[in-house]
Write a structure and sequence with these properties.
Layout lengths: L8 H4 L9 E7 L3 E6 L5 E6 L7 H17 L7 E2 L8 E3 L7 E7 L13 H20 L13 H5 L16 H21 L6 E4 L8 E4 L2 E4 L6 E4 L2 H6 L9 H13 L6 H5 L1 H18 L4 H6 L3 H14 L5
Antiparallel strand pairs: 1-2, 2-3, 3-6, 4-6, 5-6, 7-10, 8-9
Helix pairs in contact: 3-7, 5-11, 9-11
Amino acid sequence: MQLQMRDLDAAIALWPQLAGSSVRLLNHSENHTFRLDLPGGDAYTLRVHRPDYQSRANIESELAWLTALRRETGLPIPEPVAGRDGSLLQHFAPPAGPIRHAVLFRFIPGREPDMGGDLTGLFGVLGDYAARLHLHAIGWPRPAGFERQAWNAATILDRDGLWGDWRIAPGVSCDIAAVLDAVCAALRQRLDEYGTGPERYGLIHADMRLGNLLVDGDTVSLIDFDDCGFCWFAYDFAAAISFHETHPAVPALRRAWLAGYRAVRPLHAEDIAAMESMVMLRRMALLAWIGSHAETGLAQRHAAGFAEGTAALGALYLRGGLWG
């Protein structure tokens, strides 16, 4: 359901510092994200959650990890702002529709990078960030009641997947479905063989795509931890190339990401080999997402030809490799 600006009055009242702010929509993807500007120059980002996606416990767990990361790593990530009652997670009732969860962050300046330029340096930074996140997640004692979703073969490939059913996504013909059924079978087998040992599987960002990066000079900020959850660590590379898995620059970006990652945390040959399965798994997740989020601009930009591209990528995966 599309929120209107007038629906936000009750949300804005939850943070006293927002009085008198001007509001504009920045993004509507999984959630609605708004920018709020104050006359004195301060700016904030308000995230209003989709009512049927993350539970209260899930969001509170995301914010617990985000707060710990800010305190313990120095990574350039969002800073949540407590509301009038001291809580980071707030709730409001718009004039129509269900009660919504909302979180306020200090605004982070920057621009979203795109695939039009040389991104090898950026992917080196992303590898570094991913390794630091993973090291923190491995050593962090999660608080009681911590609850985040798992991104695995079942929650992505099954008909009741977290992002929907890829089988009913736009463009999935009988021929394409046959290829992708074989891909799913191969993915399940290879991921089961790879396993979920603590050195390769744990809490990750899970959505480090270009749309969740802000570049401001030499600073690269990583935003939107809304999809963080339990998955294979190598999946964070797959998420970084979301919607661009077939781009010719991917092999070079992969090398840069690996160099950045391995400068912080070691990877074994099995982990590197598993990256192909992670890319294929993520591509299947995105195909399902496009089908279940057809109303969003992001899905509309990528829908044409995405199923065909996924099948072509899947054929390479089945033949033995995405990168030769």
